Amino acid sequence: MKSKCDRCSRPATHHSVEVVNGEKIEKHLCDVHAEEEGLSLKAVHTPINELLTNFVKLHAGVTEEESGTTASDLVCEHCGLSFGDFRESSLLGCPQCYAAFETPLGPLLERAHEGGTHHIGKVPRRAGVAEQRQAQLSRLRRRLDDAVEAEDYELAAQLRDELDTLEDPS
Q1: Closest CA to 29 of 53, 4, 49
Q2: Nearest CA to 74 among 90, 97, 107, 56?
Q3: How far apart are CA 137 and CA 142, in angstroms?
Q4: Which residue has the higher pLDDT, 106 or 97?
Q5: Whole-model pTM?
Q6: Domain locations in the chain?
Q7: Which positions ≥6 away from 104 have C-beta within 8 Å?
Q8: pLDDT tens across 84-96, in order?
């Protein structure tokens, strides 16, 4: 890649390639000449809260038409926060907001957590045998629920038997 501007001896910081009528046109320009051609974009660092707000605005209104009322009409009875205010600030007012905005928040939270809707947590490595056993039982129960939901009854029966064995070791 060319390191000098096509028009002067300054370092080229903007590189563009255009194809016009089948002909490839490359431009290597410094900041000054790139701005003259309208190619210069000032680097803008968007604050994380603004990115989150934009994400919420983009994804929160997916099911508004289906429900008959818009999500923006929803208001938390406990703290008075409207869903529209939440969309602007990306901050909920109180724990009851999760229940008040359950319908529009559900898909948003699923996307944000890659499909997860329940907190699972982790068991520390130094945890005792009892904690590890409880974690194993919890994983098996979740797998059993998933198998039943998927109507994979053969796997569900195997998991049920494994759970019975672990729950009643006698």
Answers
A1: 4
A2: 97
A3: 9
A4: 97
A5: 0.34
A6: 1-44, 48-112, 129-167
A7: 60, 61, 62, 63, 64, 71, 74, 83
A8: 888 888 788 898 8
